[in-house]
């Protein structure tokens, strides 16, 4: 999976639209406010490429909407994803304390061979890394199984690569244009 | 691969199934750190997951830096100048 040129074009178009919405106030704002608008519109543009079909993109739209409801509404107005703004995400969280407690009880009762110990440690490590991934991907905490988590991660990474590539091209071009 | 799997399935713990193996190898293709290694080097699942997290966070930081740079570029430009119209045509 690679970012495609059509993805790049679509991202740029949506991002430009977001910046245009912000445009009227762009001259009266601070550098940090402008940065925030640039970043938020880039995130919404990236998420809306998926047209609500992935968990991460829905979660990202909701998260951005909580930071700047107006901008997100404007960017998504008339599009199906507008309905996502207020939609509640399903809560699929396991009660880690309870699981941990019952595991401790089970472990006390078993005596394990050395090989089982190694395998158990490896599994624990994978679990910890998986949790780290859930924290890095938007909506990760709602992804009920690891297969879904990795599928979403793959798509999220390709989308992030698109976002970074296009933003970098624009910034480099703008910088070059100014220095001339 | 299948030898390892039949050995693993006899032990009490099975960390991955076919789908997971396939997905993890797809992840390897995306991660620049791992893609550049020799094919013969085996990478553990936890390493792949760790590299994935690192890579995602790196991309987040890049987006943040680019947003900052762009904001400063817009700031440094005089509203009526030629440079401003260059930026406007690119972005807006």
Automatic annotation (TrEMBL), chain A:
Which residue numbers delimit the IBH1-like N-terminal domain?
A: 5-66
The entry's keywords: Nucleus, Transcription, Transcription regulation
The protein's location, in the record's own words, is: Nucleus
Gene Ontology CC terms: nucleus
Q: Please name the Pfam families in this protein's record.
A: IBH1_N (PF26576)
Alphabetical list of InterPro entries matching this protein: bHLH_AtIBH1-like, IBH1-like, IBH1_N
The region annotated as signal peptide is none
Would you kindly state one Gene Ontology biological process term found in this protein's UniProt entry? regulation of DNA-templated transcription
Q: What is this protein called?
A: Transcription factor IBH1-like 1
The gene name on file is LOC108820742
UniProtKB/TrEMBL annotation, chain B:
Give the matching Pfam families. bHLH_ILI
Q: Spell out the GO cellular component terms annotated for this protein, sorted alphabetically and separated by semicolons.
A: nucleus
Query: Highest taxon of the source?
Result: Eukaryota
SUPFAM superfamilies named in the record: HLH, helix-loop-helix DNA-binding domain
Location in the cell reads: Nucleus
Q: Does the keyword Cell division apply?
A: no
Where does the BHLH domain start and stop, copy by copy?
4-59
Q: Record keywords: Glycoprotein included?
A: no
Q: Which UniProt keywords apply?
A: Growth regulation, Nucleus, Transcription, Transcription regulation
Q: What does the record give under GO molecular function?
A: protein dimerization activity
- Gene3D superfamilies attached to this UniProt entry: Helix-loop-helix DNA-binding domain (4.10.280.10)
User: Where is it predominantly found?
Assistant: nucleus
Q: Which GO terms describe its biological process?
A: regulation of DNA-templated transcription; regulation of growth
Kindly provide the name given to this protein in its UniProt entry.
Transcription factor PRE5-like
The scientific name of the source species is: Raphanus sativus
């Amino acid at each position: 999976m690679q970012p495609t040129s059509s993805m790049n074009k679509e991202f740029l178009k949506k991002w430009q639209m977001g910046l245009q919405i912000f445009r009227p106030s762009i001259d009266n704002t601070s550098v940090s406010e402008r940065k925030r608008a640039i970043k938020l519109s880039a995130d919404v543009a990236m998420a809306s490429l998926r047209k609500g079909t992935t968990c991460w993109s829905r979660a990202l739209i909701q998260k951005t909407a909580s930071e700047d409801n107006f901008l997100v509404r404007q960017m998504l107005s008339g599009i199906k994803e507008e309905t996502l703004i207020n939609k509640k995400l399903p809560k699929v969280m396991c009660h880690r304390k309870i699981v941990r407690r019952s595991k401790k009880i089970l472990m006390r009762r078993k005596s394990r061979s050395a090989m089982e110990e190694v395998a158990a440690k490896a599994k624990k490590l994978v679990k910890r890394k998986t949790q780290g991934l859930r924290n890095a991907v938007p909506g990760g905490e709602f992804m009920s199984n690891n297969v879904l988590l990795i599928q979403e991660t793959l798509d999220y990474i390709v989308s992030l690569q698109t976002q970074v590539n296009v933003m970098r091209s624009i910034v480099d071009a703008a910088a070059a244009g100014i220095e001339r | 691969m299948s030898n390892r799997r039949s050995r693993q399935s006899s032990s009490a713990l099975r960390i991955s199934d076919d789908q997971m193996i396939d997905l993890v190898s797809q992840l390897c293709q995306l991660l620049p750190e791992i893609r550049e290694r020799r094919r013969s080097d085996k990478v553990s699942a936890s390493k792949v997951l760790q590299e994935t997290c690192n890579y995602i966070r790196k991309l987040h930081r890049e987006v943040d830096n680019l947003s900052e740079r762009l904001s400063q570029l817009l700031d440094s430009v005089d509203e009526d100048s030629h440079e401003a119209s260059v930026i406007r045509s690119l972005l807006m």
